[in-house]
Structure formats: structure tokens, C-alpha cells
Amino acid sequence: MLRTWLIMGWMTVSVAVSAAADPVPPPTPQQLIENLQREFSQKIADLQSEISALKAQAARMEANQTVLADSWHMRTQIESLQSEVARLREQLQANERGGSASTANRLPMSPGTRRESLRPDPNLRDELRPTTGALRLINQLTTIQEVRVNGVSYFLMPGEQIDVTVPAGTFTYQVVGIDPLPRTRSMVAGRVFTANIHP
Q1: Scanning 33, 68, 154, 156, which has its CA 20 to 30 A from the CA of 115?
Q2: Domain extents for the chain?
Q3: Predicted confidence band at 95 (pLDDT cuts at 50, 70, 90)?
Q4: Between vectors from CA 19 to CA 18 and to CA 20, what angle results, nearest 5°?
Q5: Sheet (strand 132-139) strand order
């Protein structure tokens, strides 16, 4: 009986030692490829999320810039019309003084009052004048490109086009991997500067 127990104990220990000694098999090439594919898929998904967020931000900034530019152009047209009305009133007054206009067609005007009210307000015009322009980036390559505008990175998908709002004056942009140094350009307020990314 004792001999039987000793034999069973020895067999149990042998099995445990054998199990512990067996190494974990290394991953197969197919498993390595699948792991890499999962990692790349996750990185691409994260990158696309960042690109979508940047696109939304650029769209909001572009919309604000468009409203500002439209307001400024509208104000310019109003000023032009006001100047034309003032000129016609002055001409009408001159005709009235010369007796060429009838009394019924005369327009009452206090000296200096209406003329001053029709003059454009230079302060309001300066407030509505655009202070920024748009840098239009066009990726003509077949790969994702990173462009740094004034130190801020923007990612463009192949064939993608985005507009980046930049302050008027000097700005820099650099296509990472293509431009060894940032390029310095000048932006005019209310204008669009186009930069094509090509081989």
C-alpha cells in the first residue's frame, strides 16, 4: 500500500515538473500580422477622428470669416450709396439756389445736419474690416500629409482640401517630410492664399 502511494506521488510530481518545463510557443507569423493589422487599424481610426475634429474647427472658423467678410463688403456698399445720396442732395440744393427746381420738389434739410449723418463712420468701417485671411491647402499626393501652419499641425487625406484661417501679415507653413524648413509668406486680410502639395 505504501509503495502504491509513493509511486502515485512520484507520477504527480513528474507531471507537474513536465508541465512547468514546457515553454509558451512563440506567436506564428500569421498572429504577428494580425496583431500589426489591429494596431494600424486603431491608429488610423484615431487619426481620422483627429482629422474630423480639425475639419469641424476649420469649418467654424471659415464660416465666421465669411460672415465677417460679407459684413465688410455690405458696409462698403452702404457707404458708396450714402456718398451718392449726399452728392445728389448737394446737387439738388444747388439747383434750388439757382431756381431750377420747383418748390414742391424741394427737400427740407437743416444746414449740415443731414449731410453729416450721411458721412461714413470710419470707426465702424475699421471694425468690420477683416483682419484675417485663409490659407487653402490642397493635397495632390496619394498619402496623408502633415502641414504645420504657424506651428499648428493639420493632416490632409489624399486629394483633400482645407482652408486654414490665419491673421493678416506674415505667416509660416511647412509640409512635414517635404519642406526642410518652414516657408514664410504674407497674408492679405480677406484674401485666400493657395498652397498645393505635390511631388
Answers
A1: 68
A2: 31-102+111-126, 130-197
A3: confident
A4: 90
A5: 161-167, 132-139, 192-197
Burial of 166 (0-12, 13-18, 19+ CB in 10 A): buried
The answer to whether the CB of 128 falls within 8 A of the CB of 70 is no
Which residues face 134 on adjacent strands?
165, 192
Measure Cα distances from 4 to 7, 8, 13 in Å.
5, 6, 15
User: In whole angstroms, what is the distance from residue 111 CA to residue 62 CA?
Assistant: 45
Q: Which amino acid is at 89?
A: R
Residue 192 near residue 130 (C-beta atoms within 8 A)? no
**How far is Cα 74 from Cα 100, in angstroms, rounded to an integer?**
36
Residue 88 Cα distances to 77, 85, 105, 183, angstroms = 17, 5, 13, 51
**Does residue 192 contact residue 137 with C-beta atoms inside 8 Å?**
no
Q: Cα separation of 170 and 184, whole Å?
A: 7
Contact (Cβ atoms closer than 8 angstroms) between residue 175 and residue 197? yes
pLDDT tens-digit readout, 132-189: 999 999 999 999 999 999 999 999 999 999 999 999 999 999 999 999 999 999 999 9
Widest Cα–Cα separation across the chain: 145
